[in-house]
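Supplementary Note 2. Why include the ligand at all?

Several targets in our set were suspected to adopt different conformations when bound, so apo predictions alone were not considered sufficient. For every target with a known small-molecule partner we therefore ran a joint prediction. The input for flavin-adenine dinucleotide is given below.
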Amino acid sequence: MNDTLNNTMKEKIIIIGAGVSGLSLAVKLAEYGFDVHCIEASEQTGGLAKTFRRGRYYFDVGPHSFFTEDQTILSYVKGLLGKRLKAQPRKAKFHYNNRFLDYPFTIQTILFNMGLMANLKVGFSFLRQKLRPKIPLIGNETVKDWAINTFGYYLYRTFFKPYTEQFWGIACDQLASRSIPSHTRMNFIHTCLLMFKKTRFWRSKPSLMAREKLPTYYPDTGFGEICEHLLRQAQDLGVKFSLHSTVTGVKRAKDNTFLVDFLQADNKYHLSANIVVSTIPLTSFVHTLSSFVPLKVIEATQQLEFRSLLLLAIVTEKQAILGSHYIYFLNRSYNRLSEMNEFSTLTSPDKDNILVLEIPCYSQSPLWNLTGEELLEHCLNDLTHDGFLERSEVKKLFVERVPNAYPMYKKDYAESLNKVQEFINQQPNLYTLGRSGEYMYMDADRCMQRAFKLADEINKK
Ligand SMILES: Cc1cc2nc3c(=O)[nH]c(=O)nc-3n(C[C@H](O)[C@H](O)[C@H](O)COP(=O)(O)OP(=O)(O)OC[C@H]3O[C@@H](n4cnc5c(N)ncnc54)[C@H](O)[C@@H]3O)c2cc1C
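The joint prediction is reproduced in token form.
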């Protein structure tokens, strides 16, 4: 597949990756009149925001719902999906100390549901920490430093340490405090500080906490409908797509344009472009640039890593299993369970329901290659112990492996990330975008916001 530049349109732009970031950018750039080609490794677009469609069973990459404080983005998504996008209240819980606490945590949850003993221990440990000198920071703040300094040792030991270490697979003192999502950090601090009547902090940071309280929306047959609609819109605007095509190299030609190599069904192809935007994991992207990346940038990239996610979707006829959209767990073989019928009963045939188990792990872990039956065996004791599901209630299993689900904020990640970003920023007409591309936690609405902003910037150049 050789390709010549089309002179009747604006410049040719290649977007690598067709998740929500790549698709949103493609739509906007095509509206501006650019000649856009999107190359996607998977057979299906949507990336982390896709819905797996297995026959008549639909489930997402863990629970997904749409929420945003940006009215332009909200109107845009409502316009895309129309009546298919339903508003629904967020129902989530956290399993802690053998109780199911409402999540995000509220003052009532902490005071009334955590139990008197736990409250006393939390309060005592919190006060003791406040009377002590803070743990001095050696280098960057870790989850351990942050949790002990903010809440005291009890909550660190019984809550933050087991949850964080189960989720990330490494010790709390090896993870930057940024690993705890900012809205969770703020919400927890707010709730605890309210208990101790120190509301000054809350007043200064309302927006981060407010995100967890925003109205949420869900499409009829899965979150992936958002990307499916974006794909259709992009195709209608003339964007070309190469699916099942893995980009292996991005080189600079002598005239400063780019040559993008990709593999499709073991055949090698290349396309040329004036501008390249990558939304694929930053680590993989730097690898594709190896023909002109300095060694120190490659070394910095080696310090960045993604945590992957294993999904086990269990089809069952049992209904109303969780009493909420999803529940987080400590000390279980999974870190979260979600129930698809709580999102939409159209995600499986009548009478059926899907329970989705999330198991964070590395793609080199022995767990990664387990079959559905083996994974069920791994998790069944916990499911039965908590009264969710018996073996006899399991009707069908699907396993999905999601590499690069979470950028890992290890203790010293910021230094390495800065080096990589500095290099990319120096390259004319080369951009990275999105959660995987920029190595930055963000939800789908933020991906769209950043994609639209980048399209504006490129258009104004
Ligand atoms: C478990 C979980 C729950 C979440 N819940 C929510 C939620 O409730 N609400 C919300 O708004 N957001 C949620 N998010 C975040 C949301 O999914 C992401 O912000 C968004 O999907 C990221 O989109 P992206 O396009 O930036 O990246 P990605 O989705 O990672 O897209 C990158 C694309 O690049 C492709 N690719 C990779 N390598 C190559 C290559 N070499 N060549 C070509 N293509 C390649 C991939 O296949 C992928 O399609 C959640 C994320 C996770 C993991």
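The pocket of flavin-adenine dinucleotide is lined by residues 16-22, 39-42, 47-49, 61-62, 64-66, 246-247, 279-280, 284, 309, 405, 434-437, 442-445, 447 (CB under 6 Å). The two ends are 29 Å apart (CA to CA). Comparable summaries for the other entries are listed in the accompanying table.
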